[in-house]
Amino acid sequence: MHRTYSLRQSRAPTAAQLQSPPPPPSTTKTGRFFGKGSIAHTFRRTTAGSFGPELSRKLAALVKMEKNVMRSIELVARERREVAKQLSLWGEEGDDDVSDVTDRLGVLIYEIGELEDQFIDKYDQYRITLKSVRNIEASVQPSRDRKQKITDQIAHLKYKEPNSPKIIVLEQELVRAEAESLVAEAQLSNITREKIKAAFNYQFDAMREHSEKLALIAGYGKALLELLDDAPVTPGETRPAYDGYEASKQIIIDAENALASWTLDQATVKPTLSIRRTSEGYNLEDNASQRESAVWDDHQDVEEHEEAKPVAV
Questions:
Q1: Where is region (Disordered) located (predicted)?
Q2: Segments of the chain scoring below 50 in pLDDT
Q3: How far apart are CA 152 and CA 144, in angstroms?
Q4: Predicted local distance difference test score (pLDDT) of residue 137
C-alpha cells in the first residue's frame, strides 16, 4: 500500500502566505558547525553576554539565547517528521482501519513538523529585529565612553592642576560630547521602542498562526480517530469490513484546505482585556460597576422622561 507522509505534495502558496509573504529561511539553518547537534549551542549558552560593549551585552545574551531556542525548535521539527513516518510504517501491517488511520495520522503529524519549520523562519524575524537594537546599543556605547573619559580627565586635572588651561578645553569638549550623546541616546530610545513593538509583533503573529493551525490539525486528527472501530470483539469474532478510505481521504483534503485558507484575519482566539486605554492612561474595567452604571443611567433616563411628560390640566 502506498504510504503518504505529507499532505502538501505541491507547494502552492497558502492564503496566509499570499496575505503576508513568508520570510527568508532562518539564519540558524545555514552556516552550522560541528554537525546537527552543534557544540556552538552550548558555547552560546555559556558565553552569552560575555563579550562586546557593556551597553549591548544583556540584549546580546538574549539574542544568543533565542538562537538556541530556534535550534531546539528545528530539532523538534525534524524529529516530528521522522515520528510521522515511523507511525505510518508501524501501522502498515495492521488491520485495514488501523493501517489507513495511522497513515492519515502520520500525514497530519508530518504537517506539524512542516509548520514548526515555517515557524522558525518567522521567529527569526523577531530575533533579527532585536539584533538591530543590539547593534544600535553597541554604536551608542562609544559616545558614553567618550563623555565619561572627558569627565574623568577634568576631575583629575581639577585635583592635580586646578589652574591648568586644559580644563577649559576639556570642558568645551565635554559640552560637545554631551550634545552628541544626547542625540544618540534619544535615537536609541526611539528606535528601541519601535523595534520592540515590531519584533514581538513578528513573534506573536507567528505564534498565533502556528497555534491555530495546530488546533485545526488536532481537530481533524480526532475526526480520523472516529473511523476506528474500538468496540471489543470476542475471540473468533470478525470485525465488520472497513469502509472509511474515502472518509479518511476527505478529512485530509479538508485539513489541507483549512490550513491553506487560514489567514491572520480569520484568527478565532481573541484576547479579552480587563483594562482599557484612556487619554489619561490605563484603567481597569469593573464589569459589575459598568453594569450598575448602565442600570443607573437607564433609571435616570426614565426619570427624566417621566418629568418631561406634559401635565394634564
A1: 1-30, 278-313
A2: 1-2, 5-6, 8, 10, 33-35, 288-289, 292-296, 302, 306, 308, 310-313
A3: 12
A4: 84
Lookup result for grid cell 539565547? 65
How far, in Å, CA of 35 to CA of 28, rounded? 13
CA 41 to CA 32: how far, in whole Å? 10
Q: Mind listing the domains of the chain with CATH numbers?
A: 16-29+39-140+206-230+242-266 (1.20.1270.60)
Are 66 and 127 in contact by the 8 Å Cβ rule? The answer is yes
Residue among 62, 189, 184, 200 nearest 131 (CA): 62
Q: Which of 199, 212, 214 is nearest to 263 (CA)?
A: 212
Amino acid at 20: S
Q: How far apart are the first and last CA of the chain?
A: 95
Q: What is the pLDDT of residue 104?
A: 95
Task: Sort strands 275-278 and 281-284 into parallel, antiparallel or unpaired.
Answer: antiparallel
Q: Is-contact 143 180, C-beta < 8 A?
A: yes
- In angstroms, the CA 4 to CA 89 distance is 10
- 164 CB contacts (<8 Å, ≥6 apart)? 157
Cα 58 off chain centre by? 20
Residues shown for the chain:
313
What amino acid occupies position 243?
D
